[in-house]
Amino acid sequence: MNTKFPTDFQIHLFHDGSLYESYRLFGAHLVTSENRVFTRFSVWAPNAGIVRLVGDFNDWNGRGYCLHRVNNEGIWSILVNKDLQGALYKFEIMTKEGRRILKSDPFSFYSEVRPNTASIVYSLGGYEWNDHKWLQKKARKNSRSEPMAIYELHLGSWRKKKDGAYYSYQELADCLLPYIIEHGFTHIEILPLVEHPLDDSWGYQGTGYYSVTSRYGTPHDFMYFIDQCHQSGIGVILDWVPGHFCKDAHGLYQFDGSYLYEYETAADRENSVWGTANFDLGKNEVQSFLISNALFWMEYYHIDGFRVDAVANMIYWPNQHRKTENPFGIQFLKKLNEVVLETDPTCLIMAEDSTDLPNVTSSVRDGGLGFTYKWNMGWMNDILTYMETEPNLRANVHKKMTFPLLYAFKENFVLPLSHDEVVHGKKSLLNKMPGTYWERFAQLRLLFGYMIAHPGKKLLFMGAELGQFDEWKDREQLDWNLLDYEMHRKMNEYMKKLLKLYRRSKPFYEIDHLHESFEWIDVNNDEQSIFSFIRKGKKADEHLVVVCNFTNHKYHNYRIGVPKEGSYREILNSDEDEFGGSGSRNKKLLQTEAVNYHGKPYSVCITIPPFGISILRPVKHRKERKGIGKEKVRSHAISRGTRK
């Protein structure tokens, strides 16, 4: 049997920072030779004097299980003459300074359920995928010209069993997917699923980057979950944290007694915000580890994309009053994105980035970071600040609504209303809205409608579609009992209708990354806090007119300019009775008049609902007019004007 492992070429690539399938070299692997099954273990630990393999197969005694040091740079390996599938194990490391430490395998594919911390030998082979149709159409589904409505969720608190136990990956596939499909979301984004010791970290402080958390089942169970998502036409995005990791003793921190995966200098290493350690992104071996990890999730779990957490923490050096760019972080992000997109050009790589660094979603070749999308944190902060302002004072913050349109097309944006906005005393989205019970629901419907109509892809954290009064409670399930109450039930129905409208309305998504897709009608009406604009598709005559009223005043015969002659039909009004509104609809066709208004050659007069959004679509065909011919075409005399 040829036991030469690893190859010189693999060793070279790993230390060069370009072994992008490091998971084939390191970790625990079953090896078959001459009808016998062996188990091979490899680890990187340059500061180790001795490395032993310990586990339940040798009573946690490493005598006789010493790993062989393959090279001076610290790769160690052992071939065990046993089939150790399912065995628990760790690496016992004696540092050069004489300290003994026990570490989980950084490349393990499976781990014990917390609070236990051992790695588990697990073969990822053998699952038969049935998502071929999804893979064939993924390029179209993930393209910029398609609708994208992402449902962000935390698997442990979306829904729980009666005894408080978690649903498994397989059980979640059965109950979550029908819900996602019914509501009209196109993708889900799951909070981090790397193995992590503390439930309260939500997965953001990981220890096992190659080990899907065992809280909800096995790796094959998770494959089944992804497979079912794809067969249902739902894309899956993983929240991924390549910037920092948790400092628990069994994890990556001081792995071989030295600062191996993290920066050596304390000011660069210590992440004071989260109590974690920052990856040393300038170290070649760390680059091999992290880039391989992204490709690993893509290869073995068919993941469609990543939301890269805390990009600002990688772009700039931490713990500094003045922002100083970290060249290692920037080069790492460029390298990561280039490799991922070369491997799979359909992959979605989204930057959770709060900086104003330009060209985040431009290609590396053109001088950018190479992400496919960037979270629009500025839009999120501005819109929530505006919505939390008392309606009679919103004129004072009018620019909060208009400013995001000045840069809306400089990047490929996702509009996030994420978990970060409904925790730690920030209040739920519904509770952020000022006013009475009815007004809060009306404004939340308006907020969601405005998000859908605004340029950019969409992301909503779980529970918002129910109109939760409470913040996200990560130890409990969503407040499903709210659906027993009329206003919450109607809010939920509104979200279904809104997302259905979004998916069938090309002007809302087809070219929403281009400035040609948006045109203000009236951007200056701060007195009444009414915004009106046009959304456009690729075809010149394909457009929608959107009117948003951010006060509780209702207006009749409100004149707005429109670009085309003919008639318009109201296709959505958030104030409809079925959504919990007051019923201020424009039921009949709206006939244009040759009255120049808002700089447009034609105009119509409509009823503006309180705290409402009204979306109008031009009637294109004679057949469509006949189809609602029993409605009298609404004709208006020239009004005295629209302002108070």
Jot down its keywords.
TIM Barrel, alpha/beta, Immunoglobulin-like, eight-stranded parallel barrel, six-stranded antiparallel sheet
Helix content: 10-25%
Return Rg in Å. Answer: 28 Å
Mean pLDDT: 94
**Helix/strand/pairing category:** alpha/beta
CATH architecture of the largest domain: Alpha-Beta Barrel
Give the amount of beta strand, in percent.
Answer: 15-25%
The stretches of 5 or more residues where confidence is low (pLDDT under 50) are: 627-644
Distance between the termini: 89 Å
Strand arrangement in the largest pleated sheet: 9-10-13-17-18-19-20-21
Would you count the extended β strands for me? 29
CATH structural fold name of the largest domain: TIM Barrel
Mass-distribution shape? elongated
How would you sum up the major sheet? 8 strands, parallel, barrel
**What is the domain total for the residues?**
3
- Fourth-level CATH superfamily of the largest domain: Glycosidases
* CATH class designation of the largest domain: Alpha Beta
Task: Provide structural commentary.
This protein is an alpha/beta fold. The protein folds into 3 domains: 8-120, Immunoglobulin-like (Sandwich); 148-508, TIM Barrel (Alpha-Beta Barrel); 517-627, Sandwich (Immunoglobulin-like). Helices cover 25% and strands 23% of the residues. The protein is built from 16 helices and 29 strands. Strands 9-10-13-17-18-19-20-21 form an 8-stranded parallel beta barrel. It has a 6-stranded antiparallel β-sheet with strand order 22-23-24-29-26-27, covered by helices on one side. Strands 1-2-5-4 form a 4-stranded antiparallel β-sheet. Helix 1 crosses helix 8. The longest helix is centred in the last third of the chain and has 19 residues, at 486-504. The chain starts with 7 loop residues before the first helix and ends in a 17-residue tail after the last helix.
